[in-house]
Each structure stands twice: as C-alpha cells, then as structure tokens.
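Below sits the subject:

***
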Amino acid sequence: MEDVCSFLAAQSRDGLLSQEALGQAVEQSGLSWARIERLALERNLLPARYQRNRNMLTLADQLRLAESRVAVIGCGGLGGYILEELGRLGVGRIVAIDPDVFEEHNLNRQLLATPALLGTPKVDVAKKRLREINPAVEVITHQKAFGRNNGMELLSESTVAVDALDNIEGRLELAEISSALGITMVHGAIAGWYGQVTTQFPGERTVQENYPQNGRGIEKELGNPSFTPAVIASLQAAEVCKVLLGRGTPLRGRTLIVDLLEMEFVETQSRDTPPTA
C-alpha cells in the first residue's frame, strides 16, 4: 500500500492527479479505481477530474462524497440526469433501481435512451454509462420495481434515496420506507412545463402532504419535453450534495414549484415544517 501511495504522491502536479496516473496506479496495484481514488483523497491529492469542484468543495468534502452511497429509484427522465450528475460529482456508490427497458417514447427526454438501446434494461445502460464517465463510481443495479415488499432491502446502507419515479403510489411507499430506515428522501416530479422538488428527512411528511391520495401522476396527460427533467433532476442532485455534505439549506419542509412556461419558481410550506436552528 505504501508503494501505491508513494507512486500517487510522485505523480501529483500541484496537488492534482491525472486520469492517466490514477489508471497506472490501478493497473500496477490491482486495486479498484474507487480504492485508488479514496487513497489519493485521504492523502490530500485531488483527482484532476474534480479540479473544477475545488473552489466550492474541500478535499474532505470530495472524500465524503466518494464514501457515500445514494439510491436512485427510477432510471428514466429524471433518473438518467440524476445518475449522470451524481457520477460526475464523485458520489462513490450509486444504487440504480428500475424494472423497465428503453422504449421509443423515451427518446425525446431520457438522457440514457438512444435508438440503438431500445429494448435494453435501463439499469444496464446506467451502469455502462457511469463506468464510462467515472470508473471510480461503484454502481449497484436492480432491475426490479421498488415497493413495500423489497424497499427495505433495496435501500439498505444508502444515506439518501432519490425519487425519480413516475407514480404517486411508488413515491408514497418510498417516503414511508425511507423514513423507517432513517434515510433522507429527495423528491422530484415533472409534467409538461412544470415540476417540483422537496427534501424529506426521516419522520417528516411533506411528500405525503403533497400526495394525499394514491394514483398516477399527470405526466401522461401533460407529457414531458426534453428540458423539464433536466432542470428538476439538477435541483435534486444539488439537494443530494447538500444532504451528503451537511452544507447549505435543503428544501426541508418546503416544496419548490417550478413553472418553466412562465419562468416562475414558488415555494410552498409544509404543515410539518421542522424548527429552524
């Protein structure tokens, strides 16, 4: 291990390690990309791929992200962008959950969908994509529908659960199971020009207030263009980052309503608003 650390130190330039140097360390040591990246960060050496993060994230922050585990439930419109952004951010372990394969109607908005991949499981495409963009990210996939019968197992060991579902029943089950496990849930929903985001900590009920009844959302009625999922997913990724790092002010007890047609952003307050510090 000391040989690996000495090699990393020798290869660093201004505290940065190139992708090539990290790859050489992986090849020479037989260790995983994830282990090599964490060894570097533990020694205050930053992989150069994150250098544009360092004016807003400390080395300790980047290490904390690398040691985090986040579950993304749904790998379609919202989920594809969320997976991409968390992978590029440097979240070390990502659980991708989705039972579906790509279909033609996904092509207008889902980042991971291409004509060549129609009929391919979404989780398989997500895993391949994340490996391509950041080999230090460990991707755990489950090609199954999330629900009460398997939710506890699927979310096990995760710190944050990201809601990229397309139905109300699934969201309510996710909220219930996340709370039971002591996991923070970052909720997002989209329909046409509109979307919403909130972050629910264990024991809170903002999501349940927003969806008092089960049923399917209005996505099919209003449709979804290419840009709405990108906007809402990015807001969700920012919330995940803040929760993992304990930084900033998350949308706790608040729901951000986004109207891209009129370009209006409005907050609603939950009845279950937590006390401010």
